Amino acid sequence: MTRYTADHEWIRLEGGIATVGISNHAQEELGDITYIELPTVGQTLKHGDTLGVVESVKAASDIFAPAGGTVATVNTALEDAPETINAAAESDGWICTLTGVDPTELADLMTPSQYAEFCKD
Amino acid sequence: MIPLIFERSVSGRRALTFPRLTEAEREGPLPLPAEYCADEAPDLPEVSELDVIRHYTRLSQQNYSVDTHFYPLGSCTMKYNPRLCEKVAALDGFAGLHPLLPQLRGGAALTQGALEVLWHSGELLNELTGMAGFTLQPMAGAHGELTGMLLIAAYHRARGDTRRTVLIPDSAHGTNPASAAMAGYSIVAVGTDADGNVDLDDFKARLTPDTAAVMLTCPSTLGLFETHVRELADIAHANGTLLYYDGANLNAMMGRARPGDLGFDVVHLNVHKTLGTPHGGGGPGAGPVGVREALLPFLPAPIVTRSADGTFALDYDRPQSIGYIAPFYGNFGVMLRAYAYMLHLGGNGLREAADHAVLNANYLRVRLQEAFDIPYNRICMHEVLLSAGRQHKTGGIRALDFAKGLIDAGFHPPTIYFPLIVHEAMMIEPTETESKATLDAFADALLRLARLAETDPGAFATMPESTHISRVDETRAARSMVLKA
Predict the structure, then answer these.
(1) Would an 8 Å CB–CB cutoff place A62 in contact with chain B?
(2) B480: closest chain A residue by CA
(3) How far is B194 from chain A (nearest CA, A)?
(4) CA gap B470, A48 in Å, rounded
(5) Partner residue opposite A32 with nearest CB, options B416, B423, B475
(6) Cross-chain residue pair A61–B420, CB shorter than 8 Å
(7) Option in B400, B420, B475 nearest A34 (CB)
């Protein structure tokens, strides 16, 4: 089940591993993404910590951790092909995975339908 | 496309041909040491003087500037630079001064005029902003911000206070968090409310005993007067927190409201956005910083003082000063232009400039408010913030496309995609010097483009067509940068 933040990140918890990225709506708003700064494997994050930076032709934005956890893997393929985020923000364009995520932290986040409603404004 | 100067190179072509050293000269009484003699000629373009003149003259003809066109780049305040100020700055007595002269024996007598310019500039800035004292040394607006944050840190430190965070609204220029971070602070962002003001509840929630300062831009980067400003100041001061005024938009309220009266403790000015000095291509600039009485001891050394007999001197004896932040006295030539501008316009003239800047922005707001979304549609200050959100939703035409279309219409595009909190933002700042005819021509062009976005959105794809280089692939330029030939 995917959950969304008001800052336009998504998080998907499967089998104790949470995958994190920016939403399709966010990539649309940012426009063509030209650069991404990924987190470091082993880095411990609290909910709301900056886990990376994404830059487009329009703007640079921080990416915030949707939940606390430890960075397990990062999607290094994005370093050479940041456009993957534009093409598939919520699948191949994932940014990192986290372990040790407390599932209850996800309860406050938005469901896909709530997020779709949120993005209408 | 204009070829690069290197591509004009023809082997053996020279502007000046220097005589070769004779054997006798090589061996002569003062031979050039061998380590200073190159074996090969440097890799420079081989061109004639006329080649150089034509190349750079042609490049200069492609410049787009306030001197040639309307330049409504929001948030940047592309003010016209009156030629009188240039003339004053070029006077031999100023332009020929050596910066070490005031420190040489007898030099004080020879530099009284220049010292008076600095001293009196500080006095005028005090009057304009309601502050107690200024340093004119910071060499750019962001340098002023850093200086201001270092002054705030020194103030707290002198009181044994170890506050570590700074509150900054999410609409602020990126230089604010950068300057506060350079001064060692952690940044906490504050949200914006539905009217475009700082969100008071969010502000109160994020203000803690650890908050050293609040950095505010007023009018804000949304082009709006921050209506909560007195309340924010009172809440901050009751918490022992200082209020920093980012003077980026002071042009809109000169002679109408003073940061000092609004409750600010530290102020920086961008003289290129307020007092008619040139927007250097990265410099030289000036970002003077003013402070309230309690922060005077911390100002950088030296400051200019005036003694009872009317003579001016540089005061280096400032034990609590944050120290040197710039060589000598900052960019004297830039402050000189700002000084000339203030005297040229006078107090009433400065107020009139602010009034006209606001009037011009509101004229455009009203002319464009039907055709474009205006996220915060109330009386604006020096700039009007539009959104191309509607056009993007219906026909796929974005702020970027309007910017490209305006180039073909003969105008510099407004600032786009800033502030970041506004969707498809287009920020238009006409400044005070433009006539109604120019404003109308610009508004007509934008309205024409808005109609085109409805009737023929495909037409935008190739814009601009009137420039030497038409639509560039900005994405590819950013993704695959070629930094070396």
Answers:
(1) no
(2) A34
(3) 12
(4) 42
(5) B475
(6) yes
(7) B475
Shortest CA distance to B221 belongs to which of B176, B269, B276? B176
Inter-CA distances, B58 with B14, B51, B55, B61, B452, Å: 20, 11, 5, 5, 33
Q: What is the pLDDT of residues B272-286, one digit of tens each?
A: 999 999 987 666 899
Region label for B132, one of left (φ > 0), alpha (ψ between -120 and 50) or beta (otherwise): alpha
> Which chain B residues are Cβ-neighbours of A55 within 8 angstroms?
478
In this complex, is the C-beta atom of B478 within 8 Å of any C-beta atom belonging to chain A?
yes
Predicted TM-score (pTM) above 0.90: no
Specify whether domain A2-102 bears CATH 2.40.50.100.
yes
Q: Does A84 lie at the interface with B, CB-CB under 8 angstroms?
A: no
What is each CA distance from B3 to B17, B62, B471, in whole angstroms?
Answer: 25, 14, 19
Per-domain boundaries in chain A: 2-102
- Per DSSP, the three-state class of A99 is strand
Question: DSSP alpha helices (H): ranges in B173-311?
Answer: 175-182, 200-206, 229-238, 259-262, 271-274
A chain contacts of residue B478, beta-carbon cutoff 8 Å: 32, 34-35, 55, 57
d(CA B249, CA B381): 9
Using the Cβ of B480 and the Cβ atoms of chain A, whether some distance falls under 8 Å is answered with no
The predicted structure's pLDDT at residue B34: 78
- Assess B474–A contact: CB distance below 8 Å, yes or no: yes
Instruction: Tokens for A94, please give them.
Output: 């994932």
CB contact under 8 A, A34 and B478: yes
Domains located in chain B, CATH noted: 5-60 (no CATH), 83-344 (3.40.640.10), 353-479 (3.90.1150.10)
Q: What's the one-letter identity of residue B421?
A: I
Rounded to whole angstroms, the Cα distance separating B318 from B422 reads 45
Residue A8 has which token pair?
A: 């336009």
Amino acid at B289: V
ipTM of the complex: 0.74
The model's pLDDT over A51-97, given as tens digits with 9 standing for 90+, comes to 999 999 888 889 999 999 999 999 999 999 999 999 999 999 999 99
